[in-house]
Write the structure tokens for this entry.
Amino acid sequence: MEWLAGAGALVLLVLAGRAIEKAWTVPEEIAGFGEAIDGDSLRVAGREIRLKGIDAPEISQYCQNRVGRDYACGVTAKNWLRARLQRGAVICRIEGNDRYGRLLGRCQRGDEVLNEAMVREGIAVDYGDYRSAEGAARREQLGLWSGRFVLPSEYRAANPRS
């Protein structure tokens, strides 16, 4: 039985060590000129980064504007990101990986955090980190909130990739 108590203590020490290591690990930063992959993913320095805390319409997704006309909101989101990235280099602070193993990060150009700006302007929706920015976009009926749309997560569920 003593060996079992010793093994338990060893497991606790290993877990504590990992927790301390994680707490002291400085998040990786990737800097450079970016290329938009879609509305919430970009490539910087050859690394693909998913913008953390937001969800943008899928490339194939259509929405309706304030007068009920369809528009390619997924393409609009990608074009918004592309335009911002063309203005200069970005710094992306990597904060982990998503369930598919992609890097998750917050990217900024100058003082503008792209993740938050996309939600604030109604180009993307909050996915857990930018609730107040989404509230402002809704109140001001900006972007997606000026018409009708299906949440990107619901669109993906109804239109799985083949």
